[in-house]
Amino acid sequence: MYDGEELRKIMIDVTYQSIKYLRKNFCNKDEIKLIKGETIKADLESEKIIAEALSSYGIDYKIVTEESNVIGNGKYTFILDPLDGSINYENCIPWSSVSLAVIPPNKKKVSNSIAGVVYPVYFNGEPFSFSKGNGCFEGNNKIEINKEESKILFAYLEKEEEAFKLAKFITKRPGLKIRSLGSSALELIYTGLGRSYAFIDLRGKLRNVDVAAAIGFIRECNGFVVNSKGEDSDVDANNVNVIGDVIATLSRKTLDFIINSING
Fold first, then answer.
1. CA dihedral defined by 63, 140, 98, 259, rounded to 10 degrees?
2. Does 147 have pLDDT greater than 80?
């Protein structure tokens, strides 16, 4: 059996193998060409690199992944987005990441993850990682949370009713600056670091592969991740599944204020 800290270190190495490829081939026309739908070649290559790297450690794994759905049938379930922010990457915008979380044997939910890493593609970016009970890390250093309240709000919405919900909150909290940067995993991580006021995605589209590692990170940093009803965000981890709308923040008071505002 592997403990969470062992798995955290393994996953940093595994994701770094993909990051080296993604950085080397950044803005390479051959690697960003579309293969199918919104999938680009780099998505598939990153997934392949990570599967091979996990195999080299001899871990009995199953990978739930955005591109291939499920690879293998081992005891440890790894939830992978091989390139979160692939549209950014495709357009030569480096705000993207590789996201990997692990669920131990006989567990089935995203909330059961015991370690995870979100590794930024942008150059010189250090991996953000956690292991349950051992804290959150940037690179090799335990993270110090920013105590000053940020004015940045990460927000995603598409429909008119979602805009109305967000507007009800914004009018009660003037001064916030709304940003949608294109990598939910990274934006959730930055929320966990206290570098944003909150993360709000009301589209109901986010999946476990998009956010599993980042959700574990925020919770290990003593933050909160819920849906718009205020219920803890969670979903089955055995296949690619929609987790729904997501609201995240480090402050219980802020969370309650957001939930009450959008539902008022």
1. 90
2. no
